[in-house]
Write a structure and sequence with these properties.
This protein has a two-stranded antiparallel ribbon. It is mainly alpha-helical. Helix 1 runs parallel beside helix 3 and helix 2 (15-37) crosses helix 3 (54-76). Helices cover 63% and strands 4% of the residues. The chain has one domain (2-140). Keywords: Membrane, Transmembrane, Transmembrane helix.
Length: 152
């Protein structure tokens, strides 16, 4: 459902950008979940155990639409760089709320003293990187594609 929304909803966004933004969301979700939920830190379990299962693959793809929505809304709202910290902060709060919901539903199981509030600086970092990536992707569109004809 999230995939269809990403690629079917906004007609003004090129499919290449949708794919890039989706993969950024999924990739960051995968990276940070594995960084924090596996040995040596092992701060939480996702689902019922620490073992990687096929359902985990589906879960990581669910991060994609969230990442896409972050970039899409940033573009639609035409957030000026001076207001980026407010946007980043708001999304960090939203992400914290989604994590709280996941914790309440039993998707996340915190261990070793980890608490919900510890995720907030991580969300601030990720969202800050995402804003930088947004501008990199936007600026990449300003340059013409290289000529692919063979030169003789």
């Amino acid at each position: 459902m999230g995939l269809s929304w990403c690629f079917g909803c906004p007609a003004d966004s090129p499919p290449k950008k949708a794919i890039i933004y989706f993969l950024i969301g999924a990739g960051f979700g995968f990276f940070f979940d594995h960084s924090l939920s596996t040995i040596p830190v092992d701060f939480y379990d996702i689902n019922d155990s620490s073992k990687f299962t096929p359902i985990d693959v589906i879960k990581y793809w669910m991060y994609g639409p969230v990442g896409y929505l972050f970039f899409y809304m940033y573009d639609v709202l035409k957030v000026k760089p001076a207001y980026s910290p407010i946007y980043i902060f708001a999304w960090a709060l939203l992400s914290l709320g989604l994590e709280w919901l996941s914790f309440s539903l039993g998707i996340f199981h915190y261990k070793h003293g980890y608490r919900l509030g510890y995720s907030f600086p991580i969300y601030l970092l990720v969202n800050s990187i995402w804003v930088i990536l947004y501008y990199l992707v936007q600026n990449a569109n300003d340059y013409p594609a290289p000529d692919r004809q063979s030169r003789t």
